């Protein structure tokens, strides 16, 4: 989706200039906004294909903007740009439904890869087509489409962000095995540097809530107190 529109929302002019330039060089259309309110006013007219948001901004912060965007679309890819010391806001952003985040300072190459992955997932969601057997993982009533980052329970779709899907996959690949939070970080997010154990707990809580909304009988993710989590075999 090289013709996709990327909305870049940040109150740092340098970020808007350098990141915007890098995205345009990759072939994306880029709309830049210096604060959350101006971005939201534009989004009320038309949503972008992917949103890259700073957290701390004037007039409307990234968390509120994320909440409003997620209320408009369950599938819109949302990526946060955060500072290293913004762990609480980062966790809250993930709870609000952000798909991914990058900690400043970040490499431009890494950002381009993250945007590409999010847009590829969106394209697959919009054009389901044929599912290859090698892209499927089935554990009892749970089915995971590894190419589209889609999950379903007894045929009922469960809307997950990219990060939530990765964490569920790390658990479901080893049903019955206890995974510590450090192991889940290593398996689910092998390239992360600043992911905290608390973030894993936040993802687990959100995963359970999403499954409960669609499949109240789901109890597949078990807490093993003092150790971590495991995927319960049926």
Describe this structure in words.
This protein has 2 domains: 5-126, Response regulator (Rossmann fold, 3-Layer(aba) Sandwich); 133-231, Arc Repressor Mutant, subunit A, CATH 1.10.10.10. It is of the alpha/beta class and 234 residues long. It is globular and about 50 Å long. The strands form 3 sheets. Strands 2-1-3-4-5 form a 5-stranded parallel sheet, sandwiched between helices. A 4-stranded antiparallel sheet has the order 6-7-8-9, with helices on one face. The mean pLDDT is 86. It is built from 8 helices and 12 strands. The termini are far apart.
CATH C-level name of the largest domain? Alpha Beta
Topology, number of strands: 12
Rounded average pLDDT:
86
CATH superfamily (homologous) name of the largest domain: Response regulator
Discrete helix count: 8
Strand content: 15-25%
Q: What does the overall shape look like? A: globular
Secondary structure layout:
Elements: E1 5-9, H1 13-25, E2 29-33, H2 36-43, E3 50-54, H3 62-72, E4 78-83, H4 87-95, E5 100-104, H5 108-126, E6 136-139, E7 142-145, E8 150-153, E9 156-158, H6 162-172, E10 179-180, H7 181-188, H8 197-214, E11 221-224, E12 228-231
């Amino acid at each position: 989706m090289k013709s996709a529109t990327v909305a870049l929302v940040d109150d740092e002019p340098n970020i808007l200039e350098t990141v915007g330039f890098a995205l345009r060089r990759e072939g994306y259309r880029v709309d830049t906004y210096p604060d959350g309110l101006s971005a939201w006013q534009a989004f009320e007219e038309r949503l972008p294909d992917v949103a890259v948001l700073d957290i701390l901004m004037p007039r409307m912060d990234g968390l509120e903007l994320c909440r409003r965007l997620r209320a408009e679309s369950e599938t819109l890819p949302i990526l946060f740009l955060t500072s290293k010391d913004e762990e609480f806001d980062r966790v809250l952003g993930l709870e609000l439904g952000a798909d991914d985040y990058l900690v400043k300072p970040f490499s431009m190459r890494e950002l381009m890869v993250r945007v590409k992955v999010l847009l590829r997932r969106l394209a697959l969601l919009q054009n389901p087509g044929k599912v290859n057997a090698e892209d499927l993982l089935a554990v009892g009533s749970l089915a995971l489409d590894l190419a589209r980052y889609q999950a379903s329970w007894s045929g009922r779709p469960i809307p997950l962000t990219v990060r939530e899907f990765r964490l569920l996959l790390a658990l479901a690949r080893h049903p019955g095995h206890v995974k510590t939070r450090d192991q889940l970080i290593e398996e689910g997010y092998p390239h992360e540097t600043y992911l905290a154990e608390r973030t894993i707990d936040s993802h687990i809580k959100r995963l359970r809530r999403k499954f409960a909304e669609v499949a109240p009988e789901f109890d597949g993710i078990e807490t093993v107190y003092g150790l971590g989590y495991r995927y319960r075999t049926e």
